[in-house]
Structures are given as structure tokens and as C-alpha cells.
Amino acid sequence: MARERGPRVGILGGGQLGWMMVLEGRRLGISFGVLDPDAGAPAARIADRAFRPGEGAELASWSDVVTYEFENAEAEAAEIAEAAGKLRPGLRPLLAKRNRLLEKRLFVELGIPTADFRPAGSPREVEEFLSSAGSAVVKALGGGYDGKGVRFLRNPGDAASIPWGYPVLVEEMVDVREEISVIVARSKSGEEVVYPAAENHNAGGILLYSIAPARDAEAVEAASRAAVRLARSMDYVGVLAVEFLVSADGRVLANEFAPRVHNTGHWSLCGAATSQFENHLRAILDMPLGSTEILRPTGIVNILGISRDELPVRDILSVPGARLWWYGKAEARPGRKMGHACVVAGSDEELRRRLRELMAAIYGDFPPSAAASVGAGALESEISHLSRSADA
Amino acid sequence: MARERGPRVGILGGGQLGWMMVLEGRRLGISFGVLDPDAGAPAARIADRAFRPGEGAELASWSDVVTYEFENAEAEAAEIAEAAGKLRPGLRPLLAKRNRLLEKRLFVELGIPTADFRPAGSPREVEEFLSSAGSAVVKALGGGYDGKGVRFLRNPGDAASIPWGYPVLVEEMVDVREEISVIVARSKSGEEVVYPAAENHNAGGILLYSIAPARDAEAVEAASRAAVRLARSMDYVGVLAVEFLVSADGRVLANEFAPRVHNTGHWSLCGAATSQFENHLRAILDMPLGSTEILRPTGIVNILGISRDELPVRDILSVPGARLWWYGKAEARPGRKMGHACVVAGSDEELRRRLRELMAAIYGDFPPSAAASVGAGALESEISHLSRSADA
């Protein structure tokens, strides 16, 4: 780190996660190379150097360390960086993450509770599970994020509707009380820090808003222990995010992990002493990790499928304690993450009131694109949940 | 602001203040053009477009709004932007700032207490002041910042040593108990927010460290009122910083103002709900202003004259609650601001202990360049001051 030029980090993927990594990392004197097929991708636009697919060797050679912001991107470039000894986190978590069956088996091996599951090689095997359990969640083995590759089955015969090839993963349908997530940062020398857990609310399988700290202390403690165990087991280096379902009967079930910075950790940009992005960079560059202390109750709302023209910037920034992250993507599509807004407050109750204001500012008029993204029903239900929980 | 492309801001000057403005402003979807003679200047390196001296008209044409990060830079470009109706803050505060006599007279006009002063047209007039007051501070009328253009005179005959041409400003030498500064943001529509004041410690005329919030509530209240009055008087748009000397006998004396973001507001990047950089941008773009609430007691230490090779990054980041801003300047020179570190803490006492650790991490070994920058005596005196105030 003591070279005159400062460290160079290569990022596989040029989306908003890489973009925030660059914005947070410049302060530390880090230079960034970004590999993405789209030269106009958010992180590619502000990188010191942009690389195209097929230039994995050039990226690995230019970089001191290579990391990834999207687990389904650029497998070949990741392998080249691993072979050069520069990929952090390494290939192991990436491979476990790319196949949902391996991911579930890893939870089981480590004694981390997770929803019951089995692989199914045919519609008949899915139907068997469905008829015995009464319901099932079917997941494609690869390529899943933001609710993609997931189907909820409630009726006999539903297995016929699955659009992917077999085998698939079939899981019990958990009666979910809440979803929480834990973010761990771990450096090469084994230093570990854990962020306060976030409470997450999805609509249509996509994160709509999240709140830190999560309220359920007992569930958070179990989840945090499990997340640290998972990180250690993979000799993990960087930021690791783990999502948990808390069932109606109080089980804390690991749902999935992401070997990268994560949407449910964006609150740390506003409300933590050090952001997840900075700690990811510190970890992969083997710098001392920063404090994960929460400074104020903090929430974020994702801005889904809204174009800059439609964005009510004034309304968003008028909410007390609110700030905006606009990713600068060229085109809004239904469900696409275009930006997020955060808000801080003096108490959990005040936070939930302000989040409700923020939701109303962003989605209140239900512009057609936003309603298409999230579903007006899901929005109304989440806004009324915020109202109830703020008043509770 | 509702155009697809997002607003464009032009910045006169490419130093670290512009650099932090760009880093903070990208999130809001703002594009930046930077005008600086040095294409490798911190803000020029990360701008969307770099402009050279003489290209003031091109910058004004490209930008929706033009601002400045250094009041002594690019007078012609500022005038062009003003003529185009795009300069915020406008020329008026810039002109008042560029001449210390106008600056002092503005304080007097507004009834804001300031140290006694008079213009002096010759060494004889300075000697007269000196012999009647026993001591004097002599200041060049223009070009002053970071202690440049200031001489403290204590002995008859000292006036002969002044290296600038006449006239000069001659002031009473205040017996200073402390220095505090107040940052105000004011938007075109007249919305105003005031940051908690910072307590500042200089060495060799250059800010060494500052702490927010300042302890002296009575002085802070008087200073905040005066800063708001100054901003209103100039119909100011943007962030305005005002420095005050609190004298041993309790007078709160406006010392100078800066019509821009300011080193003593850097704490807001770490410890405020919204940074001074974001609020400056919101103000000049007439967006709603962000909360200036302080989330935690916060301090910063300037990194003066230390090259990247010498920078003890690990020691700095090992201080609990610490973060680093490294400006990426090509060359370290004595007294040059190369970066800063911030630290947050749970209480004022803990903050002062952590600041002492941070000072020791940065300057503890007194590398030759740092000692040349600040003076070993001044460093030792400030470190022992922190020790005393932490234990108090």
C-alpha cells in the first residue's frame, strides 16, 4: 500500500454496486478498473480504466486485487484473476453461490438452519414434494437474484408451469414473519466486523425498503453467529451478505448468501461509521477494518423502474434526513434498480414515519412504470405496514 | 432538474474542495466540469469534462450552474459565468472576499463584531498603530488563505519587515481563547440551514485539526447569528463559512469568511446527516437542503506535507472510528494539504482521545516533511492540548 501510485482494484461488473465501490474507494487513494460489456454502465463511466469482456487477463495484470460486484458475471475473468492469485473473495464462494444446491448444502454442512429442501430431477418429483407438503418453493439452480428463478407452488399440477430445465431445487414454503440480513466483513488476516442486521421488505421478489437496526434481537444474534461461521468456513475475504427468513414459529433460517456488497447494506452509507463498500475495499486490500457502529436508525427505499424524468427529486430531498443515490443508468425498465434514497432519524418510530414519507414521495402517485415494477397492491401493503409499525 | 441528463455543475478550481464536491455530487446524478490549469488536479482528474484557463465561456455554456472552490482562482471565468447568470454564489461575495478591507467593512456595516482595524498606506502608519497598541497584525489586502499574507508584529520597527506592497490592513492582535467556525447553507429560494460550529486548531497559520461540535454554546450562538446575517446581507446562495476568534475576554469576533465549502466543515462528511459539499450543491441547484444534524462528535486531522510513501495508512485506519480522504495530489510540499482523516466517537472526551491517537498516527514520528509543514513545537503543543482537553 505504500507505493506512490496507491492500490489498484479491478471490479468484475459495472453496475451500481461497483459504482458505489468506486465512489467510496477514491477517498482511500484507490484506482479502479471495471470490466463490463456496457461502456456506459454506472461503474464503467467513472472508472480510471474500463475493460471489455475478453480482457480478463489485462484486468488481472493491471490490478493489484480483483473483486466482483455481481456473482453471475464474467466467469472466465474471475478464473483468470484467481489463477493470478488476485481474486478476493476467491472462486470458492462464487462457485457455491452460483448453484443453489451447493449453497444449501453448505448451510447444512455448517449446521446453519435453512428451509427443508431437496433436488428434483423432474416435474414428478416436484409434484411429490408438493402433494406431501401442500406447498413448495421451486428454484432454478443457477442465475437467480432479485426473485428471478423462483416460483411459489400452492396447487397440485403447478409443477407443470416451471419455465426452467431440470434439475431444480424444491424447498418448503416458510411462513415468513420477517426477513433480516447480516453483513460481515473479513480481511485476509482474519479480522472480522459485523454490521447491525437490517430488516428487509420485498415486493415482487425485489427489495423495496430496508431498515437498520432490525428489531428482533434474538433472531439477529442467531443470524450474526451463522453469518460469521459461514465466512470463516470459506476463509472468506471481503464483504459477505447473508439473508435469513424468520419463520412464524421463530426459526432463523439462512435463505441465501451473496459473496459481495449487498442492497440490504446500503443503509451503511448513511448511518454507519464506515460503509459496507469501504469495508469491502479495506478487507480485500488487507487494511484495518472500519467501525460498523450504527450512528442513527437508518432506512433506504429502492427506486425501481423510475426514469430521471419521472423522479420526484424535490419531494425525496424534502423528507427530513433524506439523501439520494441516483445510479445514472441510461434506461428505466420495470423492476430495474435506478437508485435509492436513505433516511436517518432519532428513533425507530421516527424512522418508520420518515420512511413512509419517503415511500410516498417516490411511489405515492404510482407512476405507471413504478406500479409495473412493484405492483400497486404490494406497494399499498408495504406502505400500510410502515404506518402500522411506526404507530406501534 | 427534470431533464433526462441531470444537472451540470461547473467548478472553478480543481483542488480537493472541488474533488469532494464531485465525489458527493455524483450520487445526485450531477455531472461536473472543472476548470483548472493543471489537468492532474484532484477534481480535474475525476470530472466529466476538464476545462483549461481561457475556456471560461465554454465552461459557462456547458454548465447549468457555475461555482468556485477557491476564491483567488480564475477571475475572468467567474465574471463570464456571472454575466451568463450562472455563477452561484455570485461575484459579490467573491469581490468582498478578495479584499480584506472590504471584508472587514462588511462585518462593521452589518454590526458583526470584529477586531479593530484600519487601512495603512505606509510603514509609518503601521508603526503608529504598533506604538499605540503595543502589537499588531498586518495583512495583505488580497490573496490570503492558510495564513498567507499575515504578519504578527510585536516590536517597534517590525513594520519594515512586511514583504508586500502598501496599502495593507492593520488589526489589533486579539488574545485568542479559541477559534470557531460556522457553516451556513442558503438556497436561492432563501431556505437556510446552519451546521453545528467547529472548534479549530491551527499550526503555522494552517488548520491542523478541528472538532465538532464546539463546546462554547454562548459563543456558538453569537457566531451562528452573525453568519446567517452575513449570508442574508449578500443574498448568498451556497455554502458560506465564517471564522470567529473568541477572545480571552469573551468577545466573539468575525475574523474572515470564505464564500465556499471550507476545511473546517470536512467533519460533516463523517458526522453530519448531510455533508457541506452536498448542501452546497443542493443550494446552488435550488434543491431542498439536507439536515445538518450532527450524528456523533466528530473530528478531522489535516495531513500536511506527507507523501503517499510516508503515509501511515494502517496506523490511521487502525484508530477506532477513523476514515481517510487522500486527495491524490502528485507532489507533497511542506504545508500542502494532501488529505485528511476523520474520526467519530460516542462522547466529546472519547473523541479527543481518538483525535490524539490520530494525530500520533499521522505525525507521531515527525517525518521531516511533516515537521517542516507544521513545526515540531506546534505539533507537540497541539497534541498536549488534546491530552489535556480529553482528560478535562
Characterise the protein shown here.
2 copies of one chain form a homodimer. The first copy, chain A, is an alpha+beta fold and 392 residues long. Chain A has 3 domains: 8-87, Rossmann fold, CATH 3.40.50; 116-171, Dna Ligase, domain 1 (2-Layer Sandwich); 176-391, ATP-grasp fold, B domain (D-amino Acid Aminotransferase, Chain A, domain 1). Helix content of chain A is 34%, strand content 25%. In chain A, the strands form 3 sheets. In chain A, strands 9, 10, 11, 12, 13, 14, 15, 16 and 17 form a 9-stranded antiparallel sheet that branches. In chain A, strands 3-2-1-4 form a 4-stranded parallel sheet, with helices on both faces. In chain A, a hairpin with a 2-residue loop joins β11 and β12 (206-212). Chain A is globular, with a radius of gyration of 20 Å. The termini of chain A are far apart. Chain A binds chain B through residues 1-6, 23, 26-29, 46, 270-271, 273-274, 278, 282, 287-288, 290-291, 293, 295-296, 307-309, 311, 313-314, 317-318, 320-326, 328, 339, 344, and chain B through 1-6, 23, 26-29, 46, 270-271, 273-274, 278, 282, 287-288, 290-291, 293, 295-296, 307-309, 311, 313-314, 317-318, 320-326, 328, 339, 344.
Helicity range of chain A: 25-40%
How many structural domains can be distinguished in the coordinates of chain A?
A: 3
* CATH domain class of the largest domain in chain A: Alpha Beta
The total strand number of chain A stands at 17
Which terms summarize this structure?
Rossmann fold; 9-stranded antiparallel sheet; alpha+beta; 3 domains; D-amino Acid Aminotransferase, Chain A, domain 1; Dna Ligase, domain 1; homodimer; 392 residues; 4-stranded parallel sheet; 17 strands
